Amino acid sequence: MTSSILTPRGRVRTRTAGTATAAGSTAPTPILDWRYPHVAALLRDVGRPADQGDDAGPGERIAALRRAHRWIAEGVRPVYSVQDERPVSEVLRRRRGSCSQRLAVLESVARASGVATRVRGLLVDGRFWYPRFPRVHRLVPHQVVLAWPEFRLEGLPAADHPGAPWLTVSELFADTHEPGGESAGGFTNAGRETLFDAVSRTAIDWDGPALCPAGGAACDLSGHVLADLGRFDSRDDLFARHGQTLCGVARAVAEPVLGRRSAGA
User: Fold this and answer.
1) In a domain? residue 32
2) Which candidate, 221, 239, 238, places its Cα nearest to that of 230?
3) Residue 5 lies in a domain
4) Cα–Cα nearest to 117, from 27, 225, 185
5) What's the structural domain count of the chain?
6) Which terminal residue of the chain, N or C, has fewer Cβ atoms less than 10 Å from its own Cβ?
7) Which of the two residues, 103 and 210, has the higher pLDDT score?
């Protein structure tokens, strides 16, 4: 049984009018504070898209984002932090972050290199996280607010990308997902692998099997979605409208412990 005790009160989390087609942006925000030195250092490490600036094609930009994802996966330790609004610069300073925080780092890299981002807000059933907390189900929030990033990549062929010019974070790796082997198992939310790590090896789809690759029903996570909250210009806007998963008091109590606990431990 999940818990509603630790979640914010007085919020109605349903799809919000006017957020169906958010334009996204490359601008820094309080969370995506890409002008800070830590983000600039990451950009130097992974390299900008073929050093072509605005002239880089979608292929070069996707390759640069994949390199950034790999750097984050290796350089930012996955933990169970519950502070979704923590600035990216602070996540990089600590070298540890939750799945949401690590996705925010990737968004910041994209914005800093000229790729606009936005997020889709999803309200996910807390039972999806049961495998990670087998002994404390009663403390798992009954609803989890998930910010799922999308990247605007001009020049994508619409025939191959129905959502063009937008690609979800999972679609950045679409041609790297192998039909067999480990990826055939899909993402189970168990063990050490997080959603952030999983997108590079297997499709992640919140809309149903129609968008999954042939024979890839394991990528379908739509059964865990309680509500589609729409699209927002930034994760800042999503959390301002719908709040974080836990209330402020719960975050203050849980963060000192969960913020250092490695994912899968």
Assistant:
1) no
2) 238
3) no
4) 27
5) 1
6) N
7) 103
Domain that holds residue 180: 37-258
Rounded to whole angstroms, the Cα distance separating 214 from 87 reads 38
Going by C-alpha positions, the residue among 137, 200, 132, 140 that lies closest to residue 171 is: 200
The phi, psi pair for 58, rounded to 5°, reads -60, -35
* Within-domain flag for 74: yes
Cα torsion for 246, 82, 65, 150, to the nearest 10°? 0
* Three-state SS sequence of the chain: CCECCCCCCCCCCCCCCCCCCCCCECCCCCCCCCCCHHHHHHHHHHCCHHHCHHHCCHHHHHHHHHHHHHHHHHHCEEECCCCCCCCHHHHHHHCEECHHHHHHHHHHHHHHCCCCEEEEEEEEEHHHHHHHCCCCHHHCECEEEEEEEEEECCCCCCCCCCCCCEEECCHHHHHHCCCCHHHHHCCCCCCCCCHHHHCCCCCCECCCHHHCCCCCHHHECHHHEEEEEEEECCHHHHHHHHCCCCCHHHHHHHHHHHCCCECCC
pLDDT in tens, 192-218: 889 999 999 888 889 876 556 555 556
Averaged pLDDT score across all residues of the chain: 82
Residue 21 domain-assigned? no
- 8 A C-beta contact, residue 102 and residue 72: yes
Q: With beta carbons less than 8 A apart as the criterion, state whether 25 and 116 touch.
A: yes
Determine the pLDDT at residue 180. Answer: 42
